[in-house]
Amino acid sequence: GIQVEQSPPDLILQEGANSTLRCNFSDSVNNLQWFHQNPWGQLINLFYIPSGTKQNGRLSATTVATERYSLLYISSSQTTDSGVYFCAVRPYKLSFGAGTTVTVRA
Amino acid sequence: NAGVTQTPKFRVLKTGQSMTLLCAQDMNHEYMYWYRQDPGMGLRLIHYSVGEGTTAKGEVPDGYNVSRLKKQNFLLGLESAAPSQTSVYFCASSSGTAYSNQPQHFGDGTRLSIL
Predict the structure, then answer these.
(1) Residues A28 and B101: beta-carbon distance below 8 Å
(2) How far is the C-alpha of B87 from the C-alpha of B75, rounded, in Å?
(3) pLDDT tens digits for B83-101?
(4) CA B105 → CA A58, B79, B89, B102, distances in Å?
(5) Cβ contacts (< 8 Å) between B102 and chain A: which residues?
(6) Do the beta carbons of residue B90 and residue B106 sit within 8 Å?
(7) Are B92 and B106 in contact (CB under 8 A)?
(8) Which of A75, A45, A36 lies closest to A58 in space, CA to CA?
(9) CB-based contact (8 Å) between A99 and chain B?
(10) Which residues make beta-bridge pairs with B114?
(11) Of A35, B37, B83, B87, which one's alpha carbon is 20 to 30 angstroms from that of B16?
């Protein structure tokens, strides 16, 4: 099946810092989603972005499908950004990466 | 605006007991999915359904059964619970066909502990 690799596995940020999370995938996809799993375990849809660039407030994402990677940018990080960020892709069934755990310190 | 609702939110079982997790969606989605999430890992697909009356196996189907008698509901059953099934279970739904690029929408999860 398709392999999804996320990096870095862990990220510690000072409040106000910017960061980039990366998702590499091993095959062509027609669906790529970024999720934020908050400390209560809820999965929050951030972006549905099989290609191109999208922005939502302080978050933005870019997917370069031809090169099989996606980037999630967090700008001016806040403590509420803490949690685990998952990338999930599918040509058919959604396959998740292992996640990037982000800790934002005040 | 309920979206995807999972019942119950928490449950503790003894080994060998059975139970059913319920997932309900109000978005008229054709596709529904059950995932499990173990500590430090992403979600893995257990079973899925492409429409009312149909189900199919995912990545880790052993020990689980599912039913989709109504379009809006997708049930996940454990016939004889085992400690290895201690996990957080997520349900999701999406519109579109098999190779559609529609996003999946997730419920809040069910935390299940098997003693």
Answers:
(1) no
(2) 16
(3) 999 999 999 998 866 555 6
(4) 22, 27, 14, 10
(5) 31
(6) yes
(7) yes
(8) A75
(9) yes
(10) B13
(11) B37
CB contact under 8 A, B40 and A35: no
The candidate with the shortest Cα–Cα distance to B36, out of A2, A43, A62, A71, is: A43
From B44, B45, B104, residue closest to A33, measured CB to CB = B104
Residue of A nearest to B103 (CA): A48
Sheet of B73-78, strands arranged across: B4-7, B19-25, B73-78, B65-67
pLDDT per position as a tens digit, B57-81: 998 999 999 999 999 999 999 999 9
A89 interfaces chain B, CB cutoff of 8 Å: no
The pair of three-digit structure tokens given for residue A7, joined into one six-digit string: 């990096």
Q: Do B43 and A86 touch (CB under 8 A)?
A: yes
**Contact residues for A67 (Cβ-Cβ < 8 A; gap 6+):** none
Q: Which of B41, B45, B109 sits opposite A94 (nearest CB)?
A: B45
SS3 content of chain B, % helix, strand, coil (to 5): 5, 50, 45
